[in-house]
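Hypothesis: this fold can be encoded by more than one sequence.
Test: take the structure tokens below, design a sequence, compare later.
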């Protein structure tokens, strides 16, 4: 372990950081490569070091009390039953300097534009497949690619309106994308509530540091929703799967915060190709629907027939052009892990520019050379379902890490990769940067990733100035998910 150099910092700061040890070869958000505090943290750490322990504990309790009073929770699913769990706030914020953030913003806006162009192509001319930039198996074999939506141009001309990207700082110190959240991105409401709670813990420090506020981002998104065709006669609503969903609190919170209706599938009906909501005053048209429901469940007539969450005829309403869905149905195809293997090449083909923020190195095993490479380098990879959409730190049961395969399978890793072929993808093993978190009254480094949100407005993409940071247990980079004990 490498201990941070504290020779040139004040004694209170040295005491605060006395047990903070940076992992060898792993970048840290607090301690720079030179062993000193990163500039963005210096004022905050100095103020924190000058805070009495009793005062700090009272401040942390104030933040926790706010979350309890606001009723913030998420639903955790266990082997026996689901339970509501208090929002697990790690009171320390993650601070990023504005100049560094501007580069992150530029990279994510570029990526959002790229995904928009890919979605338009996959449901339009399909030139990416025809020209050989994307294997047809990765489109036709993806359950999130919806054939009924081919040729259906979304009202307003855009497929994507609200996105999230999971990013992390790699061993080189650069940021890269580890997951694209396109289908129905979650976490924006939790990011806002976590920011409010943390600001109550460190109110004076946040003010002195000129931390950007989040309200402007949500105001811009709300204006954008209004601009998608809603008016006094056409409502804007949030579509939720219902109260048993693990992020239902967020659905209700965002609907209330933005002044939108919160609806479930049974609250809606389609009449002559128009989406209507049932109200005490009769049926009223819905012009914009921000869906938090995966596409395959949204219309039991044309998609998943067993769905009890959707609304029969929803696809017909979309095709008629009377309603805008955020995001467009079928956009979940963009989340497939295997797509990352082709994004750098597609970016060059469509824009002539490399990705500003690269994604983690990815190899699709449906190609001979890539499959052999994955087998030869399996010890440094995570091998998993090519069509999986969950982030790597929310692994599925199919994943193999570090070349270790269960002997009960009755086959070697090479045999498994050869057999599964195009259904597998190899990705560089993740080593995330660490960030300080309180542990028993002391600061300790914990692995972290950041989910950043983008909203399309009339002037283009706007990026939330911050996001939802998630931390894991010591050395457990792949265990950041809330369902697996992560904290915000």
């Amino acid at each position: 372990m490498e201990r941070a150099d504290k020779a040139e910092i004040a004694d209170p700061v040295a005491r605060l950081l006395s047990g903070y040890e940076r992992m060898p070869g792993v970048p840290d958000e607090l301690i720079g490569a030179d062993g000193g505090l990163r500039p963005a943290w210096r004022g905050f750490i100095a103020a924190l070091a000058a805070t009495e322990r009793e005062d700090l504990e009272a401040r942390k309790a104030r933040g926790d009390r706010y979350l309890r009073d606001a009723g913030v929770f998420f639903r955790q699913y266990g082997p026996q039953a689901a339970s509501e769990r208090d929002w697990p706030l790690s009171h320390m914020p993650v601070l990023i300097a504005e100049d560094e953030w501007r580069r992150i913003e530029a990279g994510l806006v570029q990526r959002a534009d790229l995904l928009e162009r890919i979605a338009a192509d996959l449901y339009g001319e399909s030139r990416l497949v025809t020209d050989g930039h994307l294997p047809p198996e990765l489109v036709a074999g993806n359950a999130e690619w919806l054939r009924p939506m081919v040729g259906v141009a979304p009202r307003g001309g855009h497929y994507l309106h609200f996105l999230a990207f999971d990013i992390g700082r790699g061993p080189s110190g650069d940021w890269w994308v580890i997951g694209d959240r396109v289908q129905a991105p979650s976490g924006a409401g939790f990011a806002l509530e976590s920011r409010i709670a943390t600001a109550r813990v460190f109110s004076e420090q946040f003010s002195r540091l000129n931390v950007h506020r989040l309200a402007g981002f949500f105001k811009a998104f709300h204006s954008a929703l209004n601009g998608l065709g809603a008016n006094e006669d056409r409502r804007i609503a949030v579509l939720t799967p219902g109260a048993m969903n693990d992020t239902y609190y967020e659905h209700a919170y965002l609907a209330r915060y933005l002044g939108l209706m919160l609806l479930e599938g049974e609250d809606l009906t389609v009449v002559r190709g128009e989406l209507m909501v049932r109200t005490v005053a009769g049926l009223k048209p819905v012009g914009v629907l921000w869906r938090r429901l995966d596409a395959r469940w949204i219309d039991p007539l044309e998609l998943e027939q067993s769905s009890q969450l959707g609304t029969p005829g929803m696809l017909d309403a979309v095709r008629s052009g009377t309603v805008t869905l955020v995001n467009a149905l079928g956009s979940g195809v963009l989340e497939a892990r295997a797509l990352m293997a082709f994004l750098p090449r597609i970016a060059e083909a469509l824009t002539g520019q490399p990705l500003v923020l690269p994604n983690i190195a990815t190899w699709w095993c449906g190609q001979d050379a890539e499959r052999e490479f994955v087998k030869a380098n399996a010890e440094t990879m995570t091998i998993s379902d090519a069509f999986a959409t969950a982030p790597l730190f929310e692994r599925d049961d199919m994943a193999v890490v570090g070349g270790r395969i269960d002997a009960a399978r009755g086959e070697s890793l090479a045999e498994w990769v050869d057999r599964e072929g195009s259904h597998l993808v190899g990705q560089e093993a993740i080593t995330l940067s660490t960030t300080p978190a309180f542990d028993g009254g002391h600061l300790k480094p914990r692995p972290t990733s950041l989910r950043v949100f983008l909203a399309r407005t009339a002037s283009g993409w706007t990026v939330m100035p911050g996001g939802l940071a998630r931390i894991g247990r010591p050395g457990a980079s792949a265990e950041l998910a809330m369902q697996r004990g992560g904290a915000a």
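The CA atoms of residues 115 and 334 lie 7 Å apart. The longest strand covers residues 442-457.
Hypothesis status: open.
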